[in-house]
Each structure stands twice: as C-alpha cells, then as structure tokens.
Fold this sequence. Notes:
This protein is an alpha+beta fold. It has nine helices and four strands; from the N terminus they run ααααααααβββαβ. The chain folds into two domains: 204 residues, Alpha-lytic protease prodomain-like; 79 residues, 2-Layer Sandwich (Alpha-Beta Plaits), CATH 3.30.70.1350. Strands 1, 2, 3 and 4 form a four-stranded mixed beta sheet that branches. Strand 3, helix 9 and strand 4 form a beta-alpha-beta unit. InterPro entries: Cation_efflux_TM (IPR058533), Cation_efflux_TMD_sf (IPR027469), CDF_Transporter (IPR050291).
Amino acid sequence: xxxGLEERLLFLSMSVELTFGVTGVIFSEQAGSTxxxxxxxxxxxxxxxxxxxxxVAKRIKQPPTTNFPLGQAALEPFLLSVExxxxxxxxxxxxxxxGYKLINHSHPxxxxxxxxxxxxxxxxDLGMAFxxxxxxRKINSPLLQFEAQEWILDGMLSAVxxxxxxxxxxxxxxxxxxxxxxxxxxxxxxxxxxxxPLKTLRTNINQLxxxxxxxxxxLKMQQNIKRLDGYHCHLEPPVLLVMGRTLWITIRTSPxxxxxxxxxxxxxxxKQRLRKDLQRDYPNYELxxxxxxxxxx
Length: 297
C-alpha cells in the first residue's frame, strides 16, 4: 500500500461529499424537494462521518499496546455500524416527511432546479465511485470499499431522481399528479437505500460480537489446511474470527496415535507454511495465526 494513499482518498471523498451535501441542502430549499434533501443530506452525513473514518484509518494501523493488546481493529466495524445507524435514522425521518406530503398533496417542487442538482450529482457520483472502487481493490481497504459503495448508491439515487424530475417537467398541466412525484420519489429512493445500511449494520455488528464469519470463508480455509502435508499431527477445523481487515485463525493440533507430539520447531514450521499459503489466497486480510497443542485423547 502506498503510504497515506488511503487517507488521501478518504479526504478527497470527504471534501467532495461535503460540497455536494451543503449544495444539496441549499438546492432542496430552493426547489422545495424532499428527494433532493435526501440526496444532499446523505452526502452531508457521509462527509461528517468521514472525519471519524480518516481518524480510524490511522489508528487501526497502529501496533498492539498495553491498553489495546489485540490492536484497534474493532474501531472499523464500530464506525461502519454507527454510519449505518445514522443513515437508517435519516431514512426514517424523511420517509415520515414524504408520507405527510403525499397525504396532504403539497405543492410540487421546482423541477428545473432539482434537475440541475441531480445531473451534476450523477456525473460526480460516477466519477468518484470509479476512482474509489478501483483504489479499494488495489490496496485492500474496507473503509474505501464502503466509501465506494456509498458513491455507487448515491449515483443510483441521483439517476432515479434525474429520471423522475425529467418526467415531472412534462406534467405541468396535471398538477394533481405533479404534486405526487416528489414524495413518491423520496419513498422509492429510501427503498433503494435501506438494504445497504441494513446489510452493513448486520455484518459489522456480527464482527463486534465475535460472530463466526461466513460459511464460504470457513470452508475455503479448511481446504487450505487440508492441502498441507508432511506434518506429524492432526489439524482440527480452524476457529476463525474476522474484525475489519484482520483475520484471526486458531488451529488445534493433536498427535497421531502411537507417535510423540510435535515439537515446537515443527509447529512453527507448519505455521509459517500455512501463513505463506494463506497470504496468497487471502491478500486482503492481516493474518494472525495461532497453533495450539491438544492431547491425542
């Protein structure tokens, strides 16, 4: 990973999000659109939480200390959980407001102003999503991956809003229908947004609770271990824990019946072979491997 690349990209993302967040809130007032407010508020919230994200990106790279003997990897899923909760709260508030406007047939928004904002937002969203996503894959950064997903989601919101406001421009002669576009669009956008923070919250809460990772990862890890040969002990299925970009692997060994238990040099050699094999298949994780010696029991 290039030194500071993750932090620079996060800072760039925060700056762009802050700009469009403030602009979106201002444009929503001028246009009288809840949908534009959702788009702008989403960017604004993301930019504010990004400040904490940049701080976390630095802290999780620090070595273990007396106060944090396992490092600070838990900060990453904790922060992502908080961001997901904030987004869920925003969606709930705006859905309530959109429902009120839908029932009371509020005045339709200024579609020209709304269109101008959503067009500029869509172009920026696509460009930032491409840049952040490509970089996240290169340097293995869950924070950048999460940020790329936010830009993709923001681009989806902008695209749907742009199409809806374009239709609204042609419904000036039908005020009853025209007044429904903004609240209905807001509810549609919220329906598109909700799966993202819900999935993020579930994944990261599971990590904070030390929940076992996905079955696919567990099965693949067992296959990696079975490929090893030339050792004189049984290897039991590994115990896996994932916390952000850190993967802890604990494997219990036991001596083969009729043979003496493996000595420490053999276990250390086995550990190094396993690490080399796993680093090839799991380059996105920081590996912590522990071998324990059990009885032949």
